[in-house]
Amino acid sequence: MFDSLSDRLTETLGRLSHKGRLTEGDVDDAMKEVRRALLEADVNFKVVKDFVTAVRERAVGQDVLHSLTPAQTVIGIVNEELVRILGTEREQLRAPDRPPQILMMVGLQGSGKTTHTAKLAVHLRKQGRSPLLVAADIYRAAAVNQLQALGKQINIPVYEEGTQASPVQIARNGVQFARERGLNPVIIDTAGRLQIDEPMMQELVDVRKAVNPTEILLVADAMTGQEAVSVASTFHERLDVTGLILTKMDGDARGGAALSIRSVTGVPIKFIGTGEKVDALEPFYPDRLAQRILGMGDIQSLVERAREQTDEQEAEKLQQKMERGSFNLEDFLDQLQKIKKMGPLNQILEMIPGLGSQLKQAKAQISDDDYKQIEAIIQSMTPYERTHPAKIDFSRRRRIAKGSGRNQGDVNQLIKQFEEMQRMMKQFSKMARKGKMPKGFG
Amino acid sequence: MLLIQADLGWDISQQLVAELRASVDANGIADAPVAKEFLRNDMVRLLELATRNRKIKILQRGVPFVVMVAGVNGVGKTTSIAKLTAYHQRFGRTVMLAAGDTFRAAAIDQLKVWGERLNVPVIAQAQGSDPAAVVFDAMLAAHNRNIDVLIVDTAGRLHTKSNLMDELSKIRKVMQRHVPDAPQEVLLVIDATTGQNGLVQAKEFASSVAITDIMISKLDGTSKGGIAFAVARELGTPISYIGTGEKAVDLAEFHPESYVDSLFFGEGELQQD
């Protein structure tokens, strides 16, 4: 896929550094790479232009020309600028003047409004509140049913009037319903619409006038391209959007649209959606998104994916096993399968920062098929052999090779590699305990 | 900038501009309209390369023509299915739908609503059931009722979820047990507003389910669906349909010339069949 900006800059600026001094032209080249990286991440081209101008100014000011590591300096500036635009502080949902708090969800078709209506409700209920969902999408086939089904699933009440009433009326009655029953917040799901569809946009304006929402949340797909700006600015002009929810961040889109929207409208990003489950809603961290936009790896997401696959007790047990050197082939297989669940191998590798240039080589060497090979070999072992790898003698190896359809060399190699790994693990974990290793390295 | 703005992406924009520059230099063109014409022709050619790969599909009597519709979440698969249904009905074909999205809340209801509106049978099981089982039933039913076209809905899935992508191959296998060359059409729906990620999506879907055709949905907005160019160049998968609204009739076959002219050069209407 895309090379990371870091690699490109290292290449552009790196090959010139032996001249001892970089020229302004070199900085121009570097800026071109920055521009390209942002465009490839779907940041709007106008936003990119302003951004690059700002970075350039700072870069010249900070004497990138004399820096020993110009590439790193530029990256640093880019990163800081990104975070500055994305917002350095976490934005909370606004509190209403008087309850209930009314949240209105708006956006294009298919951005994930209905799903995020439910997610937001679950999130707020965790804070001890009792939300009401209002089904004001009367257009899309079965949209009301969808919200009802979600409401049932998460056990949160849904107010609906079918598809004959007007959204304005439904919203108004929904808020009234919540007031009478002391439900708070009220989350209104509206139909997806194009920002150029005038009657539909007017409808949102009318709903807004009728219920005076505390927050109008624009739900935007992380995969959106250049049009994000025109979509967001129209919605913002008409409705005074107060927050952004960026959805489908569990995919591999860079999410540059968020930067465009934020810098054009100034609307803060309040949440990101990271999955199809109702609890897959997270607060927004500008630094993470900045790194993601730059394709600089996303170690946090990697850690989180790994965490999804293991619970803490298991991890602790594993840690102890490693220390005692009793980590066996059974555990190894188990770990392999967990890694596999995290996604295709090359994708996992891409999330590791700093792997950049070695990545391509690594990719060529490790393929998903290798997993299968290793799996096959271990699965051809008896439980005893798996827990006592040292006991696997020549005849056992021959049998395993036959059983797994590999040749004996492969089996030998696997066992040898495993023993090597076991030794290293023992060393690492001892060092980690003594505090010789930085935290998180063991 | 026109090209970048339309989501064509960096590489293709550079390529097109370079080609344009080369032909301008080579032919000594100083005239803007002529240069524009060159660019237009280059763009059309790029798309036509892929469109030419479109296989002519023949409906056989007694064998259902199976269309499997896939895509990431929220691109408009179910609505596109309604449009495809109306499209095939216009040719007098009988259509049946299979509710293979057993995951998303009310996805089955959504398909059923369309089934009623268009008066076509919908084969469905309860939410949460195995989509492969639904497809199995639908294949049988399509056979028994002598249906011409069976359109299979699938749950939206991000191309990064390998287990969900495997599920698609499983559905495919189930189809092939009934009809060896099914699904005769595997349609990937891409949202016109999608940016550079669209290419990655197309690649991943292509590798797990061998997509045969692409549909660009939501072209009625301000988005130009420029990612189509990248997909056409990288994969060569033909773009066959475009979706332009929320009604069942809002589907057209894709014509590179009409598409390029109306969206990039502001001439003429986007052709509707």
Description:
The complex is a heterodimer of chains A (442) and B (273). Chain A is globular, with a radius of gyration of 27 Å. Chain A contains 20 helices and 8 strands. Chain A has an 8-stranded mixed sheet, with helices on both faces. Chain A has 442 residues and is of the alpha/beta class. Chain A folds into 3 domains: 5-86, SRP54, nucleotide-binding domain (Four Helix Bundle (Hemerythrin (Met), subunit A)); 102-294, P-loop containing nucleotide triphosphate hydrolases (Rossmann fold); 303-434, Orthogonal Bundle (434 Repressor (Amino-terminal Domain)). The two termini of chain B are 31 Å apart. Chain B has a single domain (65-264), classed as P-loop containing nucleotide triphosphate hydrolases (Rossmann fold). Chain B contains 10 helices and 8 strands. In chain B, helix 4 (77-90) runs parallel beside helix 5 (107-118). In chain B, helix 9 (227-235) links the parallel strand 6 (213-217) and strand 7. At the A-B interface, helix 2, helix 6 and helix 9 of A face helix 4, helix 5 and helix 8 of B.
Summarize the structure.
The complex is a heterodimer of chains A (442) and B (273). Chain A has 442 residues and is of the alpha/beta class.
Largest sheet of chain A: 8 strands, mixed
SSE arrangement of chain B, N to C: HHHEHEHEHEHEHEHEEH
Based on secondary structure, the structural category of chain B is alpha/beta
**What is the H level of CATH, i.e. the homologous superfamily of the largest domain in chain A?**
P-loop containing nucleotide triphosphate hydrolases
**Residue-averaged pLDDT of chain B:** 88
What gap, in angstroms, lies between the N and C termini of chain B? 31 Å
Please summarize the sheet with the most strands of chain B: 8 strands, mixed
Total number of strands of chain B: 8
CATH homologous superfamily label of chain B: P-loop containing nucleotide triphosphate hydrolases
Which stretches of chain B of 5+ consecutive residues score pLDDT under 50? none
